[in-house]
Amino acid sequence: MRPPVPVPTLSRRAKLAIGAIAVLLVLFTVVGSLTNVYVDFLWFEETGFTEVFWTELQTRALLFAVAGVATGGLTALAVYLAYRFRPAFRPMSLEQQNLERYRQSLEPRRGLVLTAIAVVLGLFAGFTAQASWETWLSFRNSTDFGRTDPQFGVDVSFFVFDYPFYRLLLGFGFAIAILSLIGSLLTHYVFGGLRLQTPGQKLTAAARVQLSVLVGVFVALKSAAYWLDRYGLVYSERGGEFTGASYTDVNALLVSKTILVWVAGVCAVAFFANIVVRNFLLPAMALVLLLVSSLVIGVAYPAIVQQFVVKPSANEKEAPYIERAIASTREAYGLEDIDYVDYARDTGEQVDPEKALAEVRANAGTIENARLLDPNVLEGTFTARQQIRNVYGFPEKLDIDRYTLPDPETGEPRTQDYIVAARELNSAGLSENQASWINRHTVYTHGNGFVAAPANEIIAAREGGVPDFTTRDLPTRGNIQVDQGRIYYGELIQDQGQDVYSVVGAPEGSEPREFDRPEDGSDEGQINNTYDGEGGVAVGSFFRQLTFAIYYRERNFILSSAVNDASKVLYVRDPRDRVEKAAPFLEVDGDPYPAVIDGRVTWILDGYTTSDSYPYAEQRQLGEVAADALTGTGTTALPDETFNYIRNSVKATVDAYDGTVTLYAWDTQDPVLQTFMKAFPGVVEPRGEMSEELVSHVRYPEDLFKVQRDILTRYHVDNPQDFYNSNDRWQVPDDPTRGGQADAQPPYYILAQRPGETEATFQLTSALNAFNRQNLSAFVSASSDPENYGKLQVLRLPGNTPFKGPQQVQQSFNTDDDVARDLNLFRSADSKPVFGNLLTLPVGTNGLLYVEPLYVEGTGENSFPLLRKVLVNYGDRVGYADTLDEALDQVFGPGGGDSATDSEDSPDTPAPPPAQPTDPATPTTPPADGGGDAPAPDLDAAVADMNAALGRLADAQRSGDFAAQGQALADLQRAVEAYQSAQQAGGGG
């Protein structure tokens, strides 16, 4: 027998060094963690959401403790029992001799090893369990849906709230059983209770009893898992084309799972009986029976039924289960109450000019509000005209809202949609000398002002093509009254995605430090102020200053005189981050928007409650279906998590000055919201607390609409046979303005009349194509009108009518002779064309009008887009002019553009004949030389004038000279008109 190998020992100095390092690591970790928690608490205390902080913290701690103690404690107990009942004498075999050195190494440290096992496993289990705090709160506070599952006859709440928690418990049960079994096997093997290579008895009596109990517990848990698997069939994907229990699941697998419950139960009893019987033959036979049964009746039998019973006539066999899936998916995504309208049933390929013109005139609410300003394009224009100082900025994507204000001409109230933006502090735009700690965090602390321009009005292309800013400048003036325009909380107050904090406040009587605005719009002087709002965390005491110094790793909190007894720290300043932190049970829409409520700039956000456990509903990836061509370029992408239930349950506001977060229960019937309101009492305010002015600015949320339109592409079908065969399937079109990129066209907010309505309402809209085709199949709109909020309308177009989809309309624009010629002119070294959003506007009962603005943007550093042309399409006709009215005149004849103001007049002359559609494959761009045998002198002069004007425009944009830009644009317009006149006179052939 070889002597055992001695265990190496550490020197006293090495032990001290290791101990000191370990203590420092623990100290830094503990201090850092406690600092983070304390700073979080201060934020919740400031915002009034301490209920959320304590409830979440206590729930996480409870789950951590229970899971940690159960997993670590029970596993350590199993290992201890295995050691406690080790055999006193072991056979002197080679196997036992080899194990002796391990026993000698472990024996002096068995307490330490056992404690380490318990702690490590407990920490791992605790950290895993605490992440499921929402699952526990949902289970504990569950609310009935009032809908009964058609298969099991239980309320849907069982699947949404209870089933996930039972699965969580079962998962931890399996983990504990497996870990205990592994620990016991290893312990018995090392200490001689299990002898794999030693002749004679392989197990001691104690080892047999313990292992039998542990395997019996595991098999008993498997029996419970089979029972839960029965309910899990409501999430089955066996049907392929739909989600939920299929014919095979109900008629074969459900029976099999029930049988396996009893087989596993018998097998567990057999293992428990082995404690007394002392014979592994019976439990071994039971285990083989379980394995064979699970393969034969759990796998083979359902596969046979699926292959030979279902597949030959799947559309008939699956019909009742498809009906369940359709109904449940519609319920889960809020698509039950949709107004389907059979639209344009008597329209052929040709346009009837008189009838079309009459419908255009009858839809004055749509035409006069046709939006020419694209909020996704005009950030540069807003910046050039309204930035005022480099420290200010506007988000990459501007927003659309509507206001009811007195009409400048009649004085009557008029609802109009506006492109709006808050003039925020742009932390990333600070120059080098402005980026010191003092300037960055104590001087440049906030933005200032609110900017708005009517979405359907623009200064004529001949006069500059810029928005008509009706609310503008500093101090803010215009038709929207802003009493408190300072923006301390906004979307741009961050750097590289990280929150930029500000230290504000000063002792009474001290000189104001914070830059507020330029003095009287001057580029020289400035006006400073001191923040006096309710927002921010007081940081006057040394302890608080030390806390934030550690948290931000910034010594100036202690050393700088800018941090004083009256100071506050503003942090978590992005409106979306604030709402997500205050309501962690919500997903927040990716596009907050500012509105002026009671004279204060207020951010409005939409909060969603979601679940991935709604029975029979199709599961999707939230981030995927809510993405479009604009995601990531002005709107925040939602997390890419699985879900199959969503409600716009909460409307949230964040005051731009003091950061106050207020949550309102919008969908009061949502059981998920009701459940979390039980868990966090008082956090969400009743819907009735919303002011009328606030309600007038709520919008139907974009991300929810994108999810719903995606689901509608398949689930608008009622007939199970058609659903299974994918008949009449739709598709979200790609954005035709993105240059061939396969990104979904975003939905658009418009102010328009719905078919059958007499007044224009604010709504969110989207066109839908036929599946794998570019023809239009449907038009979806969601009302944002307070009296009819959330009402979804779907205009279903006849399948045999060739209504153009967005890509086809864009193609008809690009191939029009006049458009193609100008695009060639606009594409130069000094400028580029920019297509705005292509809006689809239903007109009357039979027509779809497409409107698209065309901008021109210089290529210089300070360039910005300016509206040059408006494109219109109706049927096969294309209008292309400087204004919408002129473009409508080209489509419908004289008078077509006067529908908004003179709806009773008839056109003076008959409409022109329908334009012949062009072949997209045939180039329509005119020859560069004008099309004649030799260039005409007038054309040469016009081209030279255009090039000269473009050069002056580029120079003016680079220098930021707005007056010179306007003059250059006017010269360019005159040159283009001269070029067109020369061509019409024959100079160009």
In short:
The protein is an alpha+beta fold. 42% of the residues lie in helices and 17% in strands.
Strand tally, please? 34
Percent helix range: 40-55%
End-to-end distance: 110 Å
Q: Please, how many helices?
A: 28
Query: What is the approximate shape?
Result: globular
Give the low-confidence spans. 899-935
What is the structural class? alpha+beta
Mean pLDDT figure? 86
Strand content: 15-25%
Taking the sheet with the most strands, its summary is:
6 strands, mixed
Oligomer: single chain
Radius of gyration over alpha carbons? Answer: 36 Å
How would you portray this structure in words?
Helix 1 (12-47) crosses helix 16, helix 5 (133-140) packs across helix 6 (156-190) and helix 27 packs antiparallel against helix 28. This protein has 28 helices and 34 strands. The protein is an alpha+beta fold and 989 residues long.
